[in-house]
Amino acid sequence: MNNPLVIIRLLLKATKPSRVSDMPAISNTFLLRRGYAALTFFGVILTHTSQEANHFNSHYDELKNHEMIHLRQACDTGDSWLRFYVLYGYYWLRGLFWNRRMKNAAYWLNPFELEAYRHDNDLSYSDRCSNGAKEWRKYAKMNFEERKKVYEERFGA
Q1: In terms of pTM, does the model score above 0.85?
Q2: What are φ and ψ of residue 42, in 5° steps?
Q3: With contact defined as beta carbons under 8 Å apart, do 69 and 45 qualify?
Q4: Rounded Cα gap, residues 19 and 79, in angstroms
Q5: What is the enclosing helix (H) or strand (E) of 144?
Q6: Using DSSP, how many helices (H) and how many strands (E) does the chain show?
Q7: What is the DSSP letter of 57?
Q8: pLDDT (tens digit, 0 to 9) for every residue of the chain, 157 residues total?
C-alpha cells in the first residue's frame, strides 16, 4: 500500500508516545526508502511488504525492539512525536557533513540510532525504558570521532 493518504490518516490519528504500548506494523513504502527494513512513524511501523508487517505484528525480535526503542526515545523528547522527529532531523542534517568520511554517517551516527542499535539485541531494553530511553542524550554530546567509536564497537567496523 503506497497511498500517501494513509500517511495523512496516521498523522491525524497519532497519540502521544507514552500512550502507545505496542506499535502495529503496516506496509507502506511511500516514506520508507530502499535499504531500510522499517520506519517508526507516529506510533506505527512502516514496512515494505505485508509479509514483513505480519512478521512485526506476530514476533518481537531485534528489529521490532529497535523500533520500540525509538518509541521510548519519543517519550523522552517531551512525549512528543513532533519534537522527536525535529531532533532526529537536526542530528541527521548535522551528520550529512560526515557522509564524506563514512558512508551514511548522518544515519549511523545519529544519537537516536546509536542507542537503538546498541540495544536492539537486548529485547528487554525498551521495557526497562518505559519512561523514556535517555542514552541518546549522551551520544548527542559526543563529537563525530566518539560516535564513530560507539558505532564500531557495535558493528566491529
Answers
A1: yes
A2: 50, 45
A3: no
A4: 9
A5: helix 144-155
A6: 9, 3
A7: H
A8: 566 677 788 878 889 999 999 999 999 877 888 888 999 999 999 999 999 999 999 999 999 999 999 999 999 999 999 999 999 999 999 999 999 999 999 999 999 999 999 999 999 998 998 888 999 999 999 999 999 999 999 998 6
